[in-house]
Design a protein that fits this description.
By secondary structure, the protein is α+β, with helices and mostly antiparallel strands. The protein has helices spanning about 50-55, 100-110, 125-135, 145, 155-160; strands at about 5-10, 25-30, 35-40, 45, 65-70, 75-80, 90, 95, 115-120, 120-125, 135-140. A six-stranded mixed beta sheet has the order 4-5-9-6-8-7. Strands 10-3-2-1-11 form a five-stranded antiparallel beta sheet, with helices on both faces. The chain is globular and about 45 Å long.
């Protein structure tokens, strides 16, 4: 089962968890044991050229901004559009790679659409479903242009696409624990 993979989660604007405030998450995997994804609109202040020498001996083709994929620590991952370097197909033209060799090859290119993430967003068994039931997230099918759109405007864009309902009381009230680590 990978029911929600390939969808975007749009945080309700009232979500209190600072990790996901006004975030748009691309779900890369979803199954009986939980879900994972990356936040598309949280670029960090770090550029790959600043850290690439510590990570790889391969050349860096284009200096890219490092994105914060979520609050869970993990290896670097890359969302991209290059099928032959894919370890997981999220959408027909959107792939995920965490293999060092694939990442080196992807980042040596200057033309491929790709975003590099440090960390990821993860939910345990039933956790995401519970958050959806209390109205913490809205769901929108992901598309290539949304995945690689400007991180400064993607939240506004997807909210407009979902409709004005997200801005008004039509969505369910959000009930998240006061301690974000319990989320």
């Amino acid at each position: 089962m990978n029911a929600l993979a390939g969808n975007l989660l749009i945080a309700d604007p009232r979500m209190a968890d600072p990790n996901f405030f006004r975030s748009v998450v691309l779900i890369t995997q979803h199954g009986d044991e939980g879900a994972s994804g990356v936040i598309l609109n949280q670029p960090s202040n770090v550029w790959l050229s600043e850290i690439w020498g510590e990570l790889s001996e391969s050349p860096l083709g284009e200096n890219r901004q490092l994105f914060r994929g979520g609050p869970v620590q993990g290896p670097l991952s890359v969302i991209h559009n290059c099928r032959n370097l894919s370890e997981l197909t999220v959408l027909p033209d959107v792939h995920l790679s965490m293999n060092r060799s694939h990442i080196d090859q992807l980042l040596a290119r200057a033309t491929d659409k790709c975003r590099v993430f440090s960390g990821y967003s993860g939910w345990g068994k039933g956790q995401l479903e519970n958050e959806l039931n209390v109205g913490g997230w809205l769901i929108l099918p992901a598309r290539l242009e949304l995945v690689f759109s400007d991180p400064e405007i993607v939240y506004k864009s997807v909210c407009e696409e979902v409709g004005r309902e997200i801005l008004f009381s039509g969505s369910k009230p959000v009930r998240f624990p006061a301690d974000p680590s319990l989320n």
